[in-house]
UniProtKB/TrEMBL annotation:
GO biological process: positive regulation of heterotypic cell-cell adhesion
Gene Ontology MF term list: extracellular matrix structural constituent; protein-macromolecule adaptor activity
Keywords: Disulfide bond, Glycoprotein, Secreted
GO cellular component terms, A-Z: fibrinogen complex
SMART domains: FBG
Name of protein: Fibrinogen C-terminal domain-containing protein
Organism encoding this protein: Capitella teleta
Amino acid sequence: MFTLIEHNFNLLSSASNCNEVDAKGAKHAIHMLQPEGHQPFLALCSFDHHGGWTIIQHRLDSRENFHRSWDEYKHGFGDMFGSFYLGNDNIHALTAQGDYELMIEVTDWMDKKAHAHYAVFDITSEEDGYQMTSANYSGDAGDALAGNKVKFSTHDHDNDFELEENCAMHHEGGWWYVDCKHGNLNAGYRHQGKLKDEHDTGMQWGRWLPDQSLKTTLMKIKPIN
C-alpha cells in the first residue's frame, strides 16, 4: 500500500507512461497512468532532457521496510516522495507496452554517485514469476543485475538458484536472485553502510562496491524513443 500525504498529484492524466506526460516545467510529479489493458495506478514521474521516466524503486533511508511478501511486491508499497517500490504488476504492465530502458542510480555513504543503464529491460507477468530481462549495459557502476529470465523472489516465494538458502530471507528484501551475491537494491538498509556480519551485504550493487551497503538507490524506466 502506498502512502500519499500532502503531495500534489494529477488524477486526470490518461498517459500510458510518464514519457507521455506533459511535465509543465516540473522535475518530478505524481501522475495517474493507465497502460493498455491494465488498471490505472499512481506513479512518480521524473523529467529530464531525455523525456519522462517512471520511477519504479527509490530508497532514501530506513523508514520503509522492504522485507515484504510476494503480494506486497506485486502491488507496491511505500511513500512515492520517500522510499517505495512501484509493484511488479505495474512494472510488467508498463514494459509489456513496448521496448523499455532502465536507469539505475546509486549513492554511497561518502555521497559518491554511480549509474548503470540497460538499453533493454522487461519483466513478465506474475504467471511467469515476473522474470526479468536486462541487456546492453553501460555506465560506471558495473553490471550487477542477474541477467535474463531470472524470476523474482521474496521470503515467502523463493525462486532463486540457491539450493540451501533463501536469498530474500537472508538479505531482507525481494529481488531477482541467481545466488545471494552481486546486486540487490531491495535488501536491508544498513546505516553508514555497516554490515551485520561477513555474510551480510545490505543494499548492494556488488560490481561497484562489493563490501559496502549503499545510502540511496533509484530505478527508473522509459520507453525507447
